[in-house]
Amino acid sequence: MAKVKGAKPDLSTEEKIKEAARKVFTQKGYAATRTRDIAEEAGINLALLNYYFRSKEKLFEIVILEKMQILLGKIGPAIMDDRTSIEQKVEQIAEHYINTLLANPDIPLFVLGEIRNNPDKFANMIRTKTKIVDSAFFKQLAERRPDMDPLHFIFNMLGLIIFPFIGKPLLQLITGIKPERAATLMNERKTLIKTWFLAMLEAN
């Protein structure tokens, strides 16, 4: 029988479980998720899930590592590159983050929520991924504005990029904007963030 054009290929049982885990963990968080919830979402029995993955913790580790790789994977190389300017780094970071979060709007709340609930578990993972205080970006900021802690600029930049996604439900409620308009605004911010960031660097 010919394959239906555009039809999705059957997922393996292991991938079905991981896909279900991504969905359930993102919706409920680690603490509120049961392995039975994941099995039901995957359409399999609990024994089969336990055959592929020994524990909820193992599945969660896979999911959180995937999410963090999506969120942070390209940021480390950008901030560590001593060949690019501050302006280029801000442009790259804004472009990457906004594109990533438009495609994966659930990531910030999920990752930040789990880090807040268990900071020690993720501390080493995050430090390894970013190393912000040892980065070329940090050193460039310190050289440009020796009168101010570079972390202020980094906090402001991340706030400009990430807060609209974290606060999206509230922002849509109080402004009445539609999802399409919200996406347009976020794409516009790719350029605006660079402008605002450079203005902060020059401000007295």
From TrEMBL:
Keyword Transmembrane included in the entry's annotation: yes
Pfam family, one: TetR_N
Start and end residues of each HTH tetR-type domain: 11-71
Keyword Transmembrane helix on entry: yes
Protein name per Swiss-Prot or TrEMBL: Transcriptional regulator, TetR family
InterPro entries associated with the record: Homeodomain-like_sf, HTH-type_TetR-like_transc_reg, HTH_TetR, Tet_transcr_reg_TetR-rel_C_sf
Alphabetically ordered keywords of this record: DNA-binding, Membrane, Transmembrane, Transmembrane helix
DNA-binding region: 34-53
Source organism per UniProt: Parapedobacter indicus
Domain of life: Bacteria
Transmembrane segments: 153-171
GO molecular function: DNA-binding transcription factor activity; transcription cis-regulatory region binding
